[in-house]
Design goal:
Structural class: alpha/beta
Largest sheet: 8 strands, parallel, barrel
Shape: globular
Distance between the termini: 8 Å
Helix content: 25-40%
Strand content: 15-25%
Order of helices and strands: EHEHEHEHEEHEHEH
Radius of gyration: 16 Å
Oligomer: single chain
Number of strands: 8
């Protein structure tokens, strides 16, 4: 079964970020997930524009840039000019007055537009944006911090999105508290990719390559 694995780089070892990128790339990661937080839209600060720029220059793998910031349209150009056409940019629709305008700027730059959907955001409120984006990042925890517990009602939201994805032409990705059990449950249903953080990938005794291989060899 084919599914994408993305490394949540806010969980990486920043004492040796260059080696982290090399080891993850050698281990077979599909893309690098970059969480940008402004301390306003979410109650935390995480990665910066410079972190994103460094990783973009350090790897040929795609980046998935998750903007957890207020009014991303104000600064979207700073991010887009430092990214490549293989990269994806997610915004939170609640953080923007006119999210479709920001999504169009991402499209115009040649990148993949995406929206990130909080646990408390209903599918009905994002219906029109589903016709614009190519990726939907479903948050299974409230955004802002690693290591949170999975919110079970998110599974019903994914079921709704799965029923829409073929007609509206988007893919679904999972972000937050991603365990092997969640991959075993949701990959067969049609979830295309999973962001891996401290639950499965980082802070373990195994090499990244071994961990990623074990995930890909899960018995469905």
């Amino acid at each position: 079964m084919q599914f994408d694995l993305m490394a949540s780089m806010m969980c990486a070892n920043y004492g040796n970020l260059e080696q982290e990128v090399k080891d993850l790339e050698a281990g077979g990661i599909d893309s690098f997930h970059i969480d940008i937080m402004d301390g306003r839209y979410v109650p935390n600060f995480a990665m910066s524009l410079n972190d994103m720029r460094y990783i973009a220059n350090a790897t040929s793998k795609p980046l998935d840039v998750h903007l957890m910031i207020e009014h991303p349209s104000n600064n979207i150009g700073l991010f887009l000019k430092n990214l490549r056409q293989c990269d994806t940019v997610y915004i939170h629709p609640e953080a923007e007055y006119h999210p479709s305008t920001t999504l169009q700027a991402i499209i115009n730059a040649g990148m993949t537009p995406g929206i990130a959907v909080n646990p408390g955001t209903s599918v009905e409120t994002i219906m029109e944006m589903l016709r614009i984006v190519k990726k939907v990042l479903v948050m299974s925890v409230n955004p802002g911090n690693a290591g949170q517990m999975y919110l079970p009602y998110v599974g019903k939201k994914i079921t709704k999105l799965l029923a829409l994805k073929e007609d509206m032409d988007f893919e679904i990705y999972w972000d937050g508290a991603c365990s092997a059990e969640k991959i075993l449950e949701f990959a067969p249903k049609g979830v295309r990719g999973f962001v891996l953080g401290t639950t499965l990938l980082f802070g373990k005794k195994q090499l990244y390559g071994e961990t990623l291989q074990n995930i890909r060899e899960l018995k469905f």
